[in-house]
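hey can u check if this looks right to u? its 173 residues, i copy pasted from the old doc so theres a chance i mangled smth
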Amino acid sequence: MAKWTQDGGFFTLHDTGEVKAPIDRCFQLTCSIALVREELGMKPVTGRTEGLVQHGDTVRWEGWQLGLKHFHVTGISGYDRPVFMQDSMLDGRFRTFQHDHHLRELPDRGGTQLEDEVRFSLPFGWAGRLVARYIVVPHVLRLMRSRFARIKRIAEGDAWRQYLPNEQTASHA
């Protein structure tokens, strides 16, 4: 169940989902540039622009969000395949933005638990906090739920094969 908290100007959003697919497949889909591109509707223009992100990679995303031209430069600041990936904003419209992706194998249920935590703040003091609370928080929570549903649909069927490089899926399918 999605939830969020606010501490001053800092917002923390949290959600979990379950996928009946191997943990490594789910992790690789989490790292897929193509999947993120589809989900956000933004284009990777510099840095790693295709394939799977890995520790130390950067990606500059450009496109439209909430009716505004937007850019976001992210760096992969944490990476422990297949259980954790963290992306942190290096430049963009937020004051701060960090997204933790935790994965946990569920052997008793034959699947993987996805757990995401997004932490962010906006500039512009009280006005930024109002925009965050009433516009950005609901938007990001919808994106998180949509991402989990997309990963579930892709990972549980055969569609995952079009997102993951053959050399990385052969031994982890």
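The chain has one domain: 16-168.
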